Amino acid sequence: MNEERLQRILEQVKSGLLGIEDACQILRVLPYEELGFAKLDHQRALRDNFPEVIYCEGKTPEQIITLLRQLALHNDNVIGTRASVEVYEQVAQGLPEIQYSPLARIIYMQRSPLPARGRVAVITAGTADVPVAEEAALCLELMGAEAQRIYDVGVAGLHRLLDHIDQINQAQVVIVAAGMEGALASVVGGLTKRPVIAVPTSVGYGASFQGLAALLAMLNSCASGVGVVNIDNGYGAAALAAAILNTHKK
Amino acid sequence: MNEERLQRILEQVKSGLLGIEDACQILRVLPYEELGFAKLDHQRALRDNFPEVIYCEGKTPEQIITLLRQLALHNDNVIGTRASVEVYEQVAQGLPEIQYSPLARIIYMQRSPLPARGRVAVITAGTADVPVAEEAALCLELMGAEAQRIYDVGVAGLHRLLDHIDQINQAQVVIVAAGMEGALASVVGGLTKRPVIAVPTSVGYGASFQGLAALLAMLNSCASGVGVVNIDNGYGAAALAAAILNTHKK
Amino acid sequence: MNEERLQRILEQVKSGLLGIEDACQILRVLPYEELGFAKLDHQRALRDNFPEVIYCEGKTPEQIITLLRQLALHNDNVIGTRASVEVYEQVAQGLPEIQYSPLARIIYMQRSPLPARGRVAVITAGTADVPVAEEAALCLELMGAEAQRIYDVGVAGLHRLLDHIDQINQAQVVIVAAGMEGALASVVGGLTKRPVIAVPTSVGYGASFQGLAALLAMLNSCASGVGVVNIDNGYGAAALAAAILNTHKK
Amino acid sequence: MNEERLQRILEQVKSGLLGIEDACQILRVLPYEELGFAKLDHQRALRDNFPEVIYCEGKTPEQIITLLRQLALHNDNVIGTRASVEVYEQVAQGLPEIQYSPLARIIYMQRSPLPARGRVAVITAGTADVPVAEEAALCLELMGAEAQRIYDVGVAGLHRLLDHIDQINQAQVVIVAAGMEGALASVVGGLTKRPVIAVPTSVGYGASFQGLAALLAMLNSCASGVGVVNIDNGYGAAALAAAILNTHKK
Amino acid sequence: MNEERLQRILEQVKSGLLGIEDACQILRVLPYEELGFAKLDHQRALRDNFPEVIYCEGKTPEQIITLLRQLALHNDNVIGTRASVEVYEQVAQGLPEIQYSPLARIIYMQRSPLPARGRVAVITAGTADVPVAEEAALCLELMGAEAQRIYDVGVAGLHRLLDHIDQINQAQVVIVAAGMEGALASVVGGLTKRPVIAVPTSVGYGASFQGLAALLAMLNSCASGVGVVNIDNGYGAAALAAAILNTHKK
Amino acid sequence: MNEERLQRILEQVKSGLLGIEDACQILRVLPYEELGFAKLDHQRALRDNFPEVIYCEGKTPEQIITLLRQLALHNDNVIGTRASVEVYEQVAQGLPEIQYSPLARIIYMQRSPLPARGRVAVITAGTADVPVAEEAALCLELMGAEAQRIYDVGVAGLHRLLDHIDQINQAQVVIVAAGMEGALASVVGGLTKRPVIAVPTSVGYGASFQGLAALLAMLNSCASGVGVVNIDNGYGAAALAAAILNTHKK
Amino acid sequence: MNEERLQRILEQVKSGLLGIEDACQILRVLPYEELGFAKLDHQRALRDNFPEVIYCEGKTPEQIITLLRQLALHNDNVIGTRASVEVYEQVAQGLPEIQYSPLARIIYMQRSPLPARGRVAVITAGTADVPVAEEAALCLELMGAEAQRIYDVGVAGLHRLLDHIDQINQAQVVIVAAGMEGALASVVGGLTKRPVIAVPTSVGYGASFQGLAALLAMLNSCASGVGVVNIDNGYGAAALAAAILNTHKK
Amino acid sequence: MNEERLQRILEQVKSGLLGIEDACQILRVLPYEELGFAKLDHQRALRDNFPEVIYCEGKTPEQIITLLRQLALHNDNVIGTRASVEVYEQVAQGLPEIQYSPLARIIYMQRSPLPARGRVAVITAGTADVPVAEEAALCLELMGAEAQRIYDVGVAGLHRLLDHIDQINQAQVVIVAAGMEGALASVVGGLTKRPVIAVPTSVGYGASFQGLAALLAMLNSCASGVGVVNIDNGYGAAALAAAILNTHKK
Measured at the alpha carbon of residue C175, what is the angle toward residues C173 and C176, in degrees to the nearest 5? Predict the structure, then answer.
């Protein structure tokens, strides 16, 4: 689209319909929509693997409704992360079509589910890591990937993990969400040749320092093939997994 | 192989060639080679995307020679990272076949180059980040990937980066090595839909705290599709990129 | 004024109206007003570029009213930052003349607007950074500067920023408020020769550590001409910008 | 220059000398010079207030000579920071014209001194902070500003500072370099209405943590109008000061 | 049990009752119970010194009830840590048999008290450390150890501690819970030859940084024979003490 | 008293009233009172400069009442710090004699005021530091010292401080409570030869990190004669000041 | 011995041989030997599980010789840790009897080996962790324990570890030395019911922060029964293991 | 002197010898001597308890000689801290009168020893802390105080400390230098009513983080009457002790 518009502009210059000075003004500008408090970026799906995702924390329900509505005009599937029940309930009054996953804390619209481009194993060390994993899993499903949930297989009971090695290796990408010491990422990384996306969670006693311990552990993984995203950032893990699944697409 | 050996053991149990108690002893053991000071892991190529890579720092030249020799018995291509010139020169006396890249600080053997499974763009913010990028690029080439080097395109002169967008988008995976504030990872992440592997480097003034500033910046990237590896860990970035390129392989 | 008073004292010494010992006592003392719980510093406008600004957090509404009233006796324009709605409502009962910006969390009086000495571009990476930016923008307007708001132009969608380069370059000073990885400060710094005041915000996922990631990033900016103020300190950015605009004033 | 080239390209498109597709290719590219290991950015003086400055640390003397030579082709005044005596001596063999300040650790060429656009007071708390201050002062002089050096006026002997208040206020901008607790930035900030650029230095006992204590202190300055740059970054302070002096220039 | 089951499987293979492929499937799997949101690990008592302990924080009362019920089917004694009064009250409705210690914040069932395998001295520096110590002491009693409570004997009044040296030395293991500067661990370590388990608590003024000061102090103990567990982790200390008491058991 | 008791024991040994073994038992024991949840240390006034002070945070009103009552049996003056209004109101029902300072958050009994042994200047940088200063000042008055309050004299308006230099120098000890960058401690330290006790407060914007910035600044004071206590620890400053005032007492 | 001396003193008091005042003086004093620069603590073996161990770092060879000689007068087995080859060679000239392990960096005398009280498994994740493990293993052997070395069994190749589970479970105590992400401690902790002593090592890339990542990981171990000692502190691990082995000794 | 000079100036104004404008210029200036690279502060002894002390680290021998010579013109006793042997040897050639303590790393001149104003106990936990303690002790002796050295009495062998309680209590002030966990400061603080100056040292294993562990421990001392100075800052402790000894002097 952008490319087309650029060509159109240059054609107008060539044909004299557009002055050179005016073209100079336009040429460094790509289109987006101005909403006042935010600039919606409809082209993101071109540069990214999914339309813009709304991060709901710190936005008012009114702002969220406006953003979602605008997105919904141009996209079949729309995601808002970090949405509390209260936000969902207010948004649902303005947008009855909206759905909600309280575990993943995601509001979403899914008019035409995308075909799954591949499978992602989403693994957690414990039960407390599940909300982060669910944020990843639901995002993946909305972005067109199959999410294989394998929860509560932390290294304190290694046999629980070893039992799922086959399932893990049948996925193209692996997401590991773990708090405390975050050892699961290294252990999984040592058991599979698949790319592992490690998500530290803020689960743990005092010296976990809200996920810092797991974060450092994952960055220092002795197993190779591990990339790390931000603490509790399930969406970020899903977006990276989707990018990897799309790698062989032009 | 493992699977076969397991079947063979079970068959021996079945046929009575192997006692049950002995089988119990064997069954949790997978094969590796004991060298005394280290345990070489020949099966890693099965679980991983490349044979074991030797991390030379903190090992004596004698240890490195022994490890490389053993690896070379079973593998055509062998890598040792973080090797100083002094280590190279001593290793070369025992292993004349060995090659060395002083910039990447890698010693390696490449008897039969692997065909490139895909292309990885390796980008640096500045000149000082090049050694880390070269570690990544050379590892990629030895692991069977094409490395497209794009160096010194930091965000202080954005046009240098914008000039290479097409090159970047023609790769399947993007590696960004940057120190200081590490902003390049976010900017590249915002310009491509490819998975971006961010490598913070320890380049910078005092408050970079040996790469911590870039590390935190990359973990907090506002662009999605970014995974982070350890500070100055060019090899780790290459290994993750290779895993991603192999995603669609069974 | 101080200078005059010092001369008057010395003249009184010369004329014998003031004893030498008494003069010794007085001479290290500059005038301020004692309020018991605080010492109002009416001369600050001489040493600073604006009368004292009240930081409302941690003060009672009564204290704030007293301070504002005293300031209002000698100044046309008065500012109180970090004021919640509750504080505003209580203060408004005692000082009906007071105005409030809920977004900027500022209470203020503006009897005779100051003429704008110059223009400051106030830029944010995202919507969540807007409150900090509004604190800066409103302070600037009250201090006699034009604030050009350019919001939600983070580096994940670079074209949004590139579209405003001309606006940015038409300002004399640029303020950039950004959380997460704070990359916008470096990118803007690379695109303009204007002094850039970077304000890290506490917006972000876990590993932003309440603004630490953005703070470190901004201090390590690879672009030159960037000065950093405290996390979320919109007022501090405005005060520095006002000082810069007044640079060529005697 | 850029602007002109853009116009020329568009004119060629208009006149049919340049095909539309070729123009698309060119249009996002601004000119720079490819040196292999680095990309020299000759247009920086347009976007910045001085040609590109070479950061010598981590570069070989050969690289530095090449970079300086290329810069010297297009610029009268050239700066390389963080240059050791050894680097200077090797560079001087290839570039006899080069000058060196061992205190500021700067190599430079100054063929036609720029007229001073204003005066910057460069203040240090102690003698150990002088190298950082000299880096700032010499950069300023090469960038076309007068540097008023006021050294060793730390707050432990306040009268030394108070004696220079007039000098400080006669400058347009103030740079304060201080290690240990960095209190001088706040005290100077409280005594002048000029913008204060605070440079934390790595000078101090153990709990200064290589400049962290001074850095945090300066960011938390209770005086307004203070912007902070990186630890020991004298050049960064000079570049910001130069940008401020150029504020009223178009 | 595991061992037996393994033998049984192998015997079935030998006798032909079990196919080789099926055995392969089973052999890396140890039994656990799938509850959907969690995987109960009934064999933990074989690998550990006590059945799985439920960490109640972040789990719903329903989840806790389900987990406790399942555990109670196979175990006489069951522990849930970090349980608030609210959680207890809800759990008690579903599981009337459950008991609660509000000080230790533990819910538990103790159908057949285990005989004490040894004695553990549980010491606190102050009154505020008692909840952590009680978590340890009650867990110990449920795990089959005698807990000798010695509270409020911090080093500010050394005679209080010296008075209990005999009691301390009569225990086999010593647990020390201390916040603030955590010095008690070192002092006790210097007075006894028993292994000392140090538990930093989050008690203290600002610069204790929620237990970090005590944690670092305990890790740096100048007395030998001290092992450290996580901040406020009374249960962890008890589990380590129980493991030590069981050391001479086969 | 202790000394006397020791002599008495030895006399009993000498006279045969006490067996040697029993004496061995007793001899390492100094007297204190066992309250179950705490061990009251009545001899502290011998080793310390004031009877034990109750830190109320984290104790129940019942515990506080018991502790205060026991202390009140043997002491005329009793202090409880960090007491909320709610705690005061409950304690006052059991102990009507108790007094309360809401600003200092102290509950206390003062039956026979101690004569002041000297004067301590208690200085704050801002209004928000006053609660910490009041904790120090009231403790000092109860411990037998005169507190000279000098509030809101931060370095942003240096003349306010310079005006009080004489007052400061007339004290024997100086306490400085400051948040933000904590520069006041260094400046006061440079202006007086009296020992300065620096109390960092948790007042400040984000990068103050709850008092860390001020803490580090005060530890790195370029002025000599400065000792630092914990963040917000007004009582600790008072106790150290009292110890200094008692220095020349035997 | 102490006990006897105390009785002797009391007997002398009883018999009148010792005045009461003199006894008071003596009674709080336990015997040690004054060497001027250090106080040798010959009774430590009574309170500890081994005579005092000399930490050689920061001591001169002369000091070390003196300390070792004095220790050797009263003890058969003597240990000095953190001794470089240079220190060893100088010490050996004064003390030819001394032995040296360059890997463990320990100098020692072992005149009459102690019988092994039990077995300790000493495990490392990688080859680079071996020096720390050797410090632990050799200390254990000198302290009277059997050290079962199991090296290079990190979690990246889990089968290497699983192969040694039986060996590990046959020990009474397990020491795990690991750098990088330190996951091995948790995995081992999950596979054994033995007490696990975790030693973080300073091995790793940048974000290991010299062992901080492994330290935090081990403190946050999701497996129970894990106690942590200081970074690289092999001796500390051995001392704790020895204390545990001696638990059931009176 | 200052006071006199101020009076003289005012008298000159009164008598007309000095113009009012000239007096204005002079009046905020207190005398010091300009040396170019430093400003010697001869009046410091008036505001401080000793003439300016030269911190030698980072100064050239020439600068140190110049500074010492100037100081020696006006003072009988002169101190330079942090002086290496090399610095001493070079300084001694220019200033043969100079003396050196290699342990304390102090160069000094002591023409007329000051009478001791009191006694300070200087205590260390271990032998490695002695250099810091010696810096304090020698400074004290040069400043006119008796230093009672009590070394190697760390809490791992408490009896060594208890033996010196009387000596400690006979001093007016106590300095405690300790690394590792720094517990000695709290224990000493609990045993004496004297003010305790705690000096954390950088002695310790990895998790001491160069003195941070001891620093935090000392700031969190559960004993009252403890003030903390910077890591390894023996001079700072001496200066604070000297200020305390001078407290009752006018």
Answer: 140
